[in-house]
Amino acid sequence: MRRSIPLLALLACLPVHTLLGQTKPSSTQSTTSRPAGPDEAALLARDAPPSVGRGFKSLDQVKLAIATGWIQLIDFQHEPPIPDGVELIENVEYGRVGDRPLLLDLYLPKGLTKPVPGLIFIHGGGWSKGSKKDYRYYAVRYAKRGYVVASISYRLIKEATFPACIQDAKCAVRWMRASAKKYHIDPKRIAAIGGSAGGHLAMMLGYSAGVPELEGNGGHAKCSSAVQAVVDLYGPVDLTVPYARNHPTVLGFFGGKTYDKVPEQYKMASPITHLDKNDPPTLILQGTIDELVPVEQADMLAKQLKELGVPCVYDRVEGYPHTMDLARLVNIRCQWFINRFLDKYLAAK
């Protein structure tokens, strides 16, 4: 970043995802008035969720807060160290499509002697980019908490469009069940967790179990792809609404096919299409000024789950945008909700 360019000029030029990648403020910015870093362990131990303040009225305010250091960011670009009590096994093949291996990274608590719940983390990136390493920040924390964690890769749309990534995610669940004995996983306690496009895939795992067109043939066909809990961070819920069906990211998901040409595909790919009273408990984490996935999508999901009687926890975070959990304090708040949600719904019966 060139110091000679005024801050406001930079904010006018830089998209939010660029600013979210900036973890260190310029040396020309004052550090004396910035808030101290939060104590993650202390905040997670509290009985009430950590407050993130009043939030912001616009994305421009968020950009300014990031650039001036008022929002402290998590550096997802640098992989966190693996804790002593966690074993990482990289590039485990969980399925295969033709000659194409499907890979995941597995995070295991060391010394397991009995089955524990399994978590499947699914990265975002508009179904077009991203990596299984993107969620290492979460994966090491939840393996340390005693879960077996798989962070998966899947076929992106430049390789295969709908329904390929859904089929891959379902294959990962089946692999986890098929591998339950080997890795001390309880096959009856599996949760899907994802953000943005990954949140969409997590919801599809939760709500579309048993839909033959979405299962695919990646492997482990004798195992179920159903999950027992869903954590959705700002994922799209209904791809048939006008905003979604006309969005270039969604068009790319369907290989450029418009809603008018393949409405049945848009419906099948929408988590809300598959909802029924037997669906698993769901945690929704969503910012109210999300310009990519409008908060109305999460509102719609929470309303329908409630009407169906499906257990649902909804944290509607005022004044925060898409990928809000890149902000350190919001991330801790998300962890606070995820921890309690998983403790409740994946606890041993």
What is the structure about, briefly put?
This protein has helices at residues 7-13, 16-20, 40-45, 59-67, 136-144, 164-178, 180-183, 197-207, 212-215, 242-245, 248-253, 263-268, 295-308, 328-345; strands spanning 86-97, 100-109, 116-122, 148-152, 185-195, 229-233, 282-287, 312-317. It is an alpha/beta fold. An eight-stranded mixed beta sheet has the order 1-2-4-3-5-6-7-8, with helices on both faces.
Notes on the protein architecture:
The chain has 349 residues and is α/β, with parallel strands linked by helices. It has a domain at 86-239 and 265-345: Rossmann fold (3-Layer(aba) Sandwich), CATH 3.40.50. It has helices at residues 7-13, 16-20, 40-45, 59-67, 136-144, 164-178, 180-183, 197-207, 212-215, 242-245, 248-253, 263-268, 295-308, 328-345; strands at residues 86-97, 100-109, 116-122, 148-152, 185-195, 229-233, 282-287, 312-317. Strands 1-2-4-3-5-6-7-8 form an eight-stranded mixed sheet, with helices on both faces. α6 (164-178) crosses α8 (197-207). The longest helix has 18 residues, at 328-345. 42% of the residues are buried.
